[in-house]
Amino acid sequence: MHEKFLKPYNPKETEERIYELWNESGFFNPDNLPERHQEPFSIVLPPPNATGTLHVGGALMIVIEDIIVRYKRMKGYKTLWLPGTDHAAIATNSKVEKILHKEEGKTRHDIGREAFVLKVEKFVEENRGALKYQISRIGASLDWSREAFTFDEKRNLAVRTAFKKMYDAGLIYRGTRITNWDPKGQTTISDDEIVYTERPSKLYTFKYSKDFPIAISTTRPETKLGDTAVAVHPNDKRYQKYIGQTFKLNFAGADLELKVVADEIVDIEFGTGALGVTPAHSQIDAEIALRHNLPSIQVINEYAKIKLPIPGLEGVKTIVARETIVAWLKKNDLLIKEEDITQRISTAERTGGIIEPLPKLQWFVDVNKPINNRDGKTLKQLMYDAVAGGRIIILPERFEKEYFNWINNLRDWCISRQIWYGHRIPVWYRKDEVFVGLDKPDGSDWEQDPDTLDTWFSSGLWTFSALGWPEQTKDLKTYHPTDILETGYDIIFFWVARMILMSEFLLGKIPFKTVYLHGLVRNQKGEKLSKSLGDNIDPLSITDQYGTDALRMALIVGVGPGSDSKLGPDKLKAYKNFANKLWNIARFVLSQERNGKLDKELIDEFNTLTKDITSDMENYRFYIAAEKIYAYLWHRFADEIIEKSKKHPEYNATLYYIFENSLKLLHPFMPFITEEIWSSFAKATDGQARLLMIEPWFTPSEVEGPSI
RNA sequence: GCGCGGUUAGCUCAAUUGGUAGAGCGCUACAUUGACGUUGUAGAUGUUGCAGGUUCAAGUCCUGCACCGCGCACCA
Predict the structure, then answer these.
(1) Which of A234, A552, A592, A628 has the most beta carbons within 10 angstroms of its beta carbon?
(2) What is the ipTM of this complex?
(3) Is A347 exposed, middle or buried (0-12, 13-18, 19+ CB in 10 A)?
(4) Which domains does chain A have, with CATH numbers?
């Protein structure tokens, strides 16, 4: 017996060595797998943010995918798991801006676009290495030779190509719309990047002036400086007589011309049943304005300050302006009511800035335009059909409903951002000319659009851009559509839906066959782990303390797809003990001579277990499979079968047989310790050193003869 | 408002298509220098949130309710 078994299992000493062994074997790369691996199987890694560090949620993602990939590889598939990182435009941009401000007290505008982008790129490069190390420590059997980055040369070509194709099909347009403006990040964001928070607020009911006959309610009196109409419901008897009339008046220093219009969208029950229409600062109001051909007055600028040249208000922050106007209303005896309400505030996901709806000239993806070469279907329909038609399965199933619900409410996707780090929009302008193409057109005076693209635009291409698209590579033909997309349920809209959109339109194919969604990992109190709370546990510190295999088990066991889980020391300790138990089982088995014949009854029992576990693996019930092999090894094999063999050495051959094959079943879950133990057993069996990682998955075979 | 999930042992959670409610941690007692960073043996704690219904049989299916959480919409 190897003397290593005389000491307790030491994960620290083992893990890096084993990972190196796997890496050097070349088997992470499907091209190097033995002959029996023919049928392809592929997963692309959801690329973690290049500037971030791996958190426990990221570790869960790695673990689930590694389990799937290791299982498929052992089953004999030509298995590719493709790694990459995401440039995460807004997140990275704002992170570097923060650092710049902290270290040099400067903004990006102080140092200029070029210098800023260089700074970001340097920062990203430094971080990617650290991230890659973290991922490998979790045991990820990723093919690093194919590593991609959402912002490298090839992916940039993919982005430009995608933009051009969509533009040519009329699916991308430029227009002035009410957008979600983030005053803090100084950029627009998409609807999905908004996070709602509740806060106490006041609902003011007032009259614009003494002579104006209708009172209205608002939570934002300061925007009323830009009102151009008052809308009422066509059936509302109270206001019938005013419909169509126009009133000129002065409101807090602003000269307003208010037309009374009738619109179905107005809720008779709300407030006074009349709605002050501010076309420049409300989505709904802009729609009303469009229907009634109303002018639009912009009140607020990009810094959330009053833009109008009104003495005492110009340049004042919106919140201050609100107080000023309320005071003016009170002074002029126009304020009728002031109620306390809870208001839902829109904030920007990345910066926390309060969203200011502003009319801006931006680029959009049209989700409702019929597409010629897709039977006149819209992008919305393409997204819908892929899932509704069963070509893509979402697990757990309930998320399919959320997916459909999201699509039904989907509006055009704003894809341009005013930040500097990201894929530059491939559009050039010269006077009144607009050129959309892969590269700058010939001739002078062309200027490229200063904006960059929403990071999810490039992420949406990931399943095929990572495989080389637009070039028709061998990898693309072999591995696309990918088999499984595994990610957190929190980015189903951001990412999963956008990938389906892009792949369906650009390739006419689904990007993946199955979507497996995992839940959030929470701390022991059940709170969401967040960086701001400071409890964002580094998975590597857990690995150091308990071993990676224990971390993997603790993350997996008892956690079904889509459900949130808690991670605490108790669970980690339990699986650390299991690793040690396994180590001692190995020590005991190795100390026995391989005597006797196989016992039919015990082998039959083990065969049944194997069939169960295999079926669990095939049906994505990893959390159950892991628990079964754990319970069997400890409480059946160690507690009963080994104990029995102590009095009956003729069982020893059976011990070897079951334990060696158990290592295969356990390997996807606890790859390090099983590989380490296997190395001692493989030699004991036939003197050949083989990696457990590419051993064929155990297939039950009948044992002849009676039980011992 | 529309929709989804949860409610099971002191705690954290399982229970694959309906078939005697389980695990880990914790707790109690006993054993043990044992292959074991201990581990093993035995044990206690449950009207599976509440009220009905279907069924030979319900944690699981149906109806209603309560509480916790989430998504989307509205948010003047």
Answers:
(1) A552
(2) 0.90
(3) middle
(4) 189-357 (3.90.740.10), 563-694 (1.10.730.10)
